[in-house]
């Protein structure tokens, strides 16, 4: 059975009995300014903790009744029930039953947030319901018995039907409602209150009414579009009912609206302030540095999963290796399900020195779900304090990420990670009706860092930290819904069981890698498929494939080498790019024959033939053309001042191979271009001897011996040139004729 899911006037377990007795003593001249709020909750859930925190923020007296009691009221998420709440509330309220001046309020325990102090609640009660003794919240659904709808009194404006999750009134009248008839634990509490309210005599005698326009109470089910967050002049978050232009102060996520309450709860209850930012973020923080200095850091299982083709794993593992956390306080659990990743995975494991390592190899035929369930079991078996889950597409470039997350001291917390320059991230702000992604009103502001704090999210992936206290509850979560993928299953499990998943953007933790289309490049048989990632993962592509000195070329005032008139030489591509480009070309292997006849060209004739492979033959034309426009054109505009052509155009982009026994040199010629580039792809005097370029008109020769450097020079008319003989080995250059 699930714990009662509705909120109820609260009570006194044995630990609160003395407090209750003191409060129950009659007082002289008792004033109606007294207010007690009750709730009924059998388990200390995240939702109940949220309610208690909101009460503390506004210094409201909240009595929680029923903690530790076995729940017999049914699973009220899916069926009628909850009568046990009435019994528990009745017992808790009994000491106060004769206090005619005492106002009491009942709220459900697991899905309610308070957003005002007692003074404001009392004032609203008197201002709006001065002729009433009991006020119930209202909603737009007649539940659980729709046939009773016609019996409800008409209302002038607003919601017509009673909701039992929130009500308020004087203690004697409330107690009479709770005791007017018997109820079983398994009976429905809302039906109980409804039948009393629909009794004309009782409604009149007890002066009962509904808060039809949400002046105090707001039930969200069916009214989510009516309620939004706004901020007052002090920055305090308010719930604004735009339909009635009211600002309710007790918010209830009844029925299917619990996810929307989680969204509102990121702000309400003094959780986040538009002036001062996140109020709740520092309330539970741990001093991890003090733990490190005074003793051992928490023991963590680092669980890494590579369940699909993912680019840039070398960089991923480099970030993992740089985590600022003692290796002897880390247990490694790693599951790889991809052949493409085996080299990087094996190298990482060989170089690691963790306290223990559990490597679940691809050949073990364990599914992704099973592997992730295994990580939970492994962490528990190692008596770990935390499970740190990391997918291969989560690049944790902040080496302090693990310490920072531990310091937040949350049962489940994730770093916000997004794809650079895009809005795609590892969390969702809202859910669609089918359980998939929907964008919340604040999603963009959170992803872009305009709002900073901790955010209760319906879905989290990529990387997250689960504490030891919560870990056992997640057993079976990845198998919970096999219609979804493993992470969606886990998140649905958390939502359905009231386990909050927080995401944090108070620090920059790293970024996500775009991997959705990477498998297509792997399937095409690329040796180095990351070369094709310039569009999807430009930042990583630049870091891996641009020459490390390239950006210095564009610094204002920086000079670019000019070894011959109007012939410049600058660093463009990295050593790794050069090697991988040669590898891809040789892997493709279809070099031209070096003759004038060339079926690859529109006219079928090449005036100055070379042994080459065109970029379009290996499917790299679009990527190379983009590279030329983004990284070569800015250099051209700097050196050939006054010439602009954006985007660049190029039909001839190819890699040339020079070998003494094949084609060693190239006769003098003009390029069919406005300007050209030649990139040296391998090393002179190591991979080959000879080579170089001579510009005929200037009788000027360049050795072209700097790996990854590119010549850039005018094409037709002024810069006739020839390729000098390669005398040993094999020379490779990447040539492009720009703006023909």
Automatic annotation (TrEMBL):
Gene3D superfamilies, A to Z: q2cbj1_9rhob like domain
SMART domains: P4Hc (SM00702)
Domain Fe2OG dioxygenase: 649-740
Record-listed E.C. numbers: 1.14.11.4
InterPro entries in the record: Collagen_mod_GT25 (IPR050757), GT_PLOD (IPR057589), IPNS-like_FE2OG_OXY (IPR044861), Nucleotide-diphossugar_trans (IPR029044), Oxoglu/Fe-dep_dioxygenase_dom (IPR005123), Pro_4_hyd_alph (IPR006620)
Cofactors demanded by this protein: L-ascorbate
Localisation per UniProt entry: Endoplasmic reticulum
GO MF annotation list: iron ion binding; L-ascorbic acid binding; procollagen-lysine 5-dioxygenase activity
Record's catalysed reaction(s): L-lysyl-[collagen] + 2-oxoglutarate + O2 = (5R)-5-hydroxy-L-lysyl-[collagen] + succinate + CO2
SUPFAM superfamilies for the chain: Nucleotide-diphospho-sugar transferases
Record carries keyword Metal-binding: yes
Listed Pfam families: 2OG-FeII_Oxy, GT_PLOD, OGFOD2-like
PROSITE patterns for this protein: FE2OG_OXY, PROKAR_LIPOPROTEIN
GO CC, one annotated term: endoplasmic reticulum
Signal peptide: 1-21
Keywords of the record: Dioxygenase, Endoplasmic reticulum, Glycoprotein, Iron, Metal-binding, Oxidoreductase, Signal, Vitamin C
Name used for this protein in its record: procollagen-lysine 5-dioxygenase
């Amino acid at each position: 059975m699930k714990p009662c899911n509705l909120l109820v006037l609260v009570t006194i377990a044995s630990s609160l009995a003395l407090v209750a007795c003191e409060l129950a003593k009659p007082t002289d001249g008792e004033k109606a300014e007294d207010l007690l709020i009750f709730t009924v909750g059998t388990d200390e859930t995240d939702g109940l903790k949220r309610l208690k925190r909101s009460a503390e923020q506004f210094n409201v007296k909240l009595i929680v009744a029923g903690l530790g009691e076995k729940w017999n009221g049914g699973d009220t998420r899916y069926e009628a029930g909850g009568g046990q709440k009435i019994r528990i509330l009745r017992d808790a309220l009994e000491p106060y039953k004769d206090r005619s001046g005492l106002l009491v309020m009942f709220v459900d325990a697991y899905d309610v947030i308070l957003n005002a102090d007692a003074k404001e609640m009392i004032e609203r009660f008197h201002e709006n319901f001065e002729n009433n003794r009991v006020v119930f919240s209202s909603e737009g659904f007649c539940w659980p018995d729709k046939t009773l709808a016609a019996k409800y009194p008409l209302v002038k404006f607003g919601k017509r039907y009673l909701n039992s999750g929130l009500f308020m009134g004087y203690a004697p009248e409330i107690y009479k409602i709770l005791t007017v008839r018997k109820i079983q634990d398994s009976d429905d509490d809302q039906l109980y209150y409804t039948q009393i309210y629909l009794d004309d005599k009782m409604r009149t005698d007890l002066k009962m009414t509904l808060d039809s326009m949400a002046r105090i109470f707001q039930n969200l089910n069916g009214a989510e579009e009516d309620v939004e967050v706004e901020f007052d002049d002090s920055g305090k978050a308010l719930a604004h009912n735009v339909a009635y232009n009211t600002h309710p102060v007790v918010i209830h996520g009844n029925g299917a609206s619990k996810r929307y309450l989680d969204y509102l709860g990121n702000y309400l209850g003094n959780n986040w302030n538009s002036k001062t930012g996140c109020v709740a973020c520092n309330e539970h923080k741990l001093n991890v540095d003090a733990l490190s200095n005074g003793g051992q850091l928490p023991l963590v299982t680092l669980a890494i999963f590579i369940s699909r083709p993912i680019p840039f794993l070398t960089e991923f593992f480099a970030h993992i290796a740089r985590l600022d956390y003692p290796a002897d306080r880390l247990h490694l659990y790693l599951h790889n399900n991809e052949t493409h990743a085996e080299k990087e995975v094996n190298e990482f494991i060989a170089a690691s020195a963790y306290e223990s390592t559990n490597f679940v190899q691809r050949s073990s035929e364990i599914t992704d779900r099973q592997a992730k369930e295994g990580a939970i079991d492994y962490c528990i078996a190692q008596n770990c304090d935390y499970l740190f889950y990391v997918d291969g597409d989560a690049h944790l470039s902040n080496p302090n990420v693990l310490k920072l997350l531990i310091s937040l001291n949350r049962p489940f917390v994730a770093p916000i990670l997004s794809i650079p320059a895009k809005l795609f991230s590892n969390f969702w702000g809202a859910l669609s009706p089918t359980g998939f992604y929907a964008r919340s009103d604040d999603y963009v502001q959170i992803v872009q860092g305009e709002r900073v704090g901790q955010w209760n999210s319906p879905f989290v992936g990529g990387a997250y930290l689960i504490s030891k206290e919560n870990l056992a509850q997640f057993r079976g979560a990845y198998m919970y819904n096999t219609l979804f993928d493993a992470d969606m299953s886990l998140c649905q499990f958390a939502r359905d069981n009231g386990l909050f998943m927080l995401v944090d953007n108070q620090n920059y933790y790293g970024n996500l890698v775009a991997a959705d289309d990477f498998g297509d490049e792997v399937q095409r048989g690329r040796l180095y498929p990351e070369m094709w990632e310039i569009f999807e993962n430009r930042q990583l592509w630049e870091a891996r494939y641009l020459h490390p000195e390239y950006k210095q070329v564009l610094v204002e005032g920086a000079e670019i080498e000019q070894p011959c008139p109007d012939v410049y030489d600058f660093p463009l591509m990295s050593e790794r790019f050069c090697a991988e480009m040669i590898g891809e070309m040789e892997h493709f292997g279809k070099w031209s024959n070096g003759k004038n006849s060339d079926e690859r060209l529109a006219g079928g004739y090449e005036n100055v033939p070379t042994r080459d492979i065109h970029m379009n033959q290996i499917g790299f034309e679009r990527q190379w053309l983009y590279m030329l426009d983004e990284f070569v054109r800015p250099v051209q505009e700097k050196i050939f001042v006054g010439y602009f052509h954006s985007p660049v155009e190029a039909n001839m982009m190819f890699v040339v191979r020079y070998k003494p026994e094949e084609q060693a040199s190239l006769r003098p010629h003009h390029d069919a271009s406005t300007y050209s580039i030649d990139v040296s792809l391998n090393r002179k005097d190591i991979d080959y001897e000879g080579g170089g370029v001579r510009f005929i008109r200037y009788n000027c020769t360049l050795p072209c011996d700097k790996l990854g450097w590119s010549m850039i020079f005018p094409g037709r008319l002024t810069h006739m040139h020839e390729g000098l003989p390669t005398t040993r080995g094999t020379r490779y250059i990447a040539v492009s004729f720009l703006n023909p």
